[in-house]
Amino acid sequence: xxxxxxxxxQLVRQGEALKKENSHLRRExxxxxxxxxKLENETSDMKEVLKHLQGKLEQEARVMxxxxxxxxxxxxxxxxxxxxxxxxxKFAPEVPSGGRGPEESPAAPGxxxxxxxxxxxxxxxxxxxxxxxx
Length: 134
Fold this sequence. Notes:
Blueprint: H1 2-67, H2 70-91, H3 118-133
Helix pairs in contact: 1-2, 2-3
């Protein structure tokens, strides 16, 4: 009879331990859910900022075309492509790429090209560095 009492006490202790672990996991899940919601809001805000910046770039491009400043327009186009590439790298949904990392992605700006996109690549590198520090 004492063996069954010991087994019962052991089961009660295991049940209590499982309840504690379950509570801990629920809190962690809630924290993660809150963090995910915050990140989704920040992403949405960044999308709005990017849309606003793209609108400004397009407006500037129209002004520059009308005034004959095509070389600056070419620089703006390259910058816009770099911004779009950066956005696609940072906010694209996670998709298995067959072992290819972001540095091998076709959307990543290549280090061999010189010219108007250099500012965008420098910005991209700085953002990557800040992300690593965080």
